[in-house]
Amino acid sequence: RQVQQILANIDLDLARQVGANLGIEVPDLTLDYKKTAVEKSAKLSFLAFPPQDIQGRKVAVLIHNLVKSDSLEAMKNWAIKEGVTLHLLAPSLAPVKDHQDSIITADGMQMAEPSIAYDAVIIPDGDNLNAVLQDGVARHYLLEAYKHLKPIAFLGNKSDLLEPL
Predict the structure, then answer these.
(1) Who contacts 108 (Cβ-Cβ below 8 Å, separation ≥6)?
(2) Which residues is 86 bridged to in the sheet?
(3) Which residues pair with 105 in a beta bridge?
(4) Which alpha helices (H) appear in 11-160, and where do they start and end?
(5) Going by C-beta distance under 8 Å and a sequence separation of 6 or more, which residues neighbour residue 134?
(6) Which domains are delineated in the chain?
(7) What does the buried/exposed string (b/e) look like for 81-91 if buried means 16 or more CB atoms within 10 Å of the residue's CB?
(8) Which helix (H) or strand (E) element contains residue 88?
(9) How far apart are CA 33 and CA 113, in angstroms?
């Protein structure tokens, strides 16, 4: 039944190949059906009802060793005020040390949580530009976010990361 009635109405050539392998004869005719036109609906468009603010969005913050903790603190305060969820993503599961040698615990890894799962990406300020430039995973993360038209914020001297994109 699947080959004769279902698959034959989807792709007759494929149904013939499957039928030949199974020893089933496939009819030459398929069922007549009426093609229905699908109309576009503005109500189903993402652009029909754009959000008025950033509330409820998820933002990835890529952190590396020597990140400036005051930059992170300012971001956290901003996120609380605006209703944004920040996720600190590190290169690995190891804790990250800030510029004052304090330990920062990340919420996840850059490799495990792709940029497509977030609405935007922030690279915080820190004395770690070379580390970020040499981190292939971070560069790929930024490139992926860039290609998916995600907003990317570079804080401090991190605007040099724009060049490879």
Answers:
(1) 87, 88, 89, 90
(2) 59
(3) none
(4) 12-22, 69-82, 129-134, 136-147
(5) none
(6) 2-36 (no CATH), 58-162 (3.40.50.880)
(7) eeebebebbbb
(8) strand 85-90
(9) 44
Residue 130: CB partners within 8 Å, gap ≥ 6? Answer: none
Residues facing 61 on adjacent strands:
88, 122
Question: What's the first-to-final CA gap in the chain, in angstroms?
Answer: 53
Cα torsion 143, 149, 81, 110 to 10°: value is -30
Of the chain, the percentage scoring pLDDT greater than 70 comes to: 93
Query: What does pTM read for this prediction?
Result: 0.70
- pLDDT tens for residues 128-137? 888 888 899 9
Query: What's the mean pLDDT when you consider all of the chain?
Result: 87
Rounding to the nearest 10 degrees, give the CA dihedral for residues 43, 47, 49, 51: 160
User: How far is residue 56 CA from its own chain's centroid?
Assistant: 16
pLDDT in tens, 95-116: 999 999 999 999 999 999 999 9
Residue corresponding to tokens 């993360």? 141
126 CB neighbour count, 10 Å cutoff: 24
